Amino acid sequence: MHRRASSPAPSPPAQSNSDYAGGLARAFGGAVIFSLPMLMTMEMWFLGFYMDRFRLLLLFILNFVVLTGLSRFSGFEPTVRLVDDIMDALAAVAVGVIASAVVLGIFGILDAQMPFNEIFGKIVVQCVPASFGAMIARKQLAGAKDQETEDAAEAEAGYGGQLFLMMAGALFLAFNVAPTEEMILIGFKMTPWHSLALVMLSILLLHAFVFGVGFPGQEDTPEGTTFNARFFGYTVTGYAIALLTSLFVLWTFGRTDGAGLQQIATMTIVLGFPAAVGAAIARLVV
Amino acid sequence: MAKPEQDLTTPAKPGIPALEWIAAGIGLTLTLVIVGVIGWDAVNGTAAGQPPAVEASVARITPVATGYVVEVKLRNRSPATAASVGVEGELTSGGTALETSRAMVDYVPGRSERGAGLFFTRNPAQHTLQVRALGYADP
């Protein structure tokens, strides 16, 4: 994330412990709400023990970078400095890990006889969506008053920031559906014509969401930009981001291992559909 | 020392509440532990190319209304995870097979144990019982 040197964002008011405790409570709520589908998906538990450890580590680190970026636009407290964003990201990890461990423990997915590795892996995989939920909880659960600083940050996020938000939205939605077997099954059921149709539909939806539906902060698209500039600047780029994010998620979960090129392409397109929707609605959710 | 509670609520730096330092501190600790453990695992844990090695052993035999339940313990000594692990128990008497039972376990994670159960109508204690893992699929 690039900081604007001349950041006109209003400096946030000093916070008290009770303000921050409220933010933390919302963060726990967000962590549970946004990761519940994944906490209740068995493939996610299995991934916890068989996922390649290098990929898990990379996912965790990348998630941390995304959290730090998101902290500027969302997060449990208004931030202006990078240090605050990092502290927010650390707190989101804490909330994500604790929330995942508690819920998985209550579900009986973790038990004391399992080896440490298995328990640890299950919690770390789940903490990715949970910490994301913790971070965006503010946007979803906070009052309108708290929104102002973030909306100001979003409004001046610039083109790079917009693309970052699209990537974060794509990552979150792709992560939500990628672990299930259905992703692969859908790929098997589709012919190349279906794939092409899905590409069209994804791009169409992305374009409609980004420009057709009224979005907050949408007015920062310069007046008078041509259809082409918008289409190639946001829609096509957004879809490219969605596809790359999908490919990364598939690789992370080991779905691309040993798969043929055609199959990888189909899976990427299938996962690219939710990813494109995620990219499109990023500004609403984040 | 009159009111020590107030010292706790006084932030170390103006503008950052003490609770935020605590939350970020816990987060930092968890982050370092996660990166450390997963990183160590990535380098040392999964011996690349090593196949799963699942061995089955009889844990307990319990008489039930319809016969006997043999609880089987499946132990994977390799770091690699085995999926769809089949387990078979065979009851023999003097070289003649009397009964065979099979069960399927979804996953036996690396360096872990999972349990399964086999039903028999004859009493396994009175014959020779052999259990073994049949095979697996890559997860």
From TrEMBL, chain A:
- What is the organism field in this record? Novosphingobium rhizovicinum
Q: Where are the transmembrane segments?
A: 20-42, 54-74, 86-107, 157-178, 190-211, 231-253, 265-285
Alphabetical keyword list:
Membrane, Transmembrane, Transmembrane helix
Keyword match Iron-sulfur: no
Name of the molecule in the record: TIGR02587 family membrane protein
Mind telling me which InterPro entries this protein's record contains? CHP02587_IM, DUF2391
From TrEMBL, chain B:
Keyword annotations: Membrane, Transmembrane, Transmembrane helix
Keyword check for Transmembrane: yes
Q: Where are the transmembrane segments?
A: 21-40
Q: Which domain of life is it from?
A: Bacteria
Keyword Membrane recorded: yes
- Please report the name of this protein according to its UniProt entry: TIGR02588 family protein
Q: Show the taxonomic lineage.
A: Bacteria, Pseudomonadati, Pseudomonadota, Alphaproteobacteria, Sphingomonadales
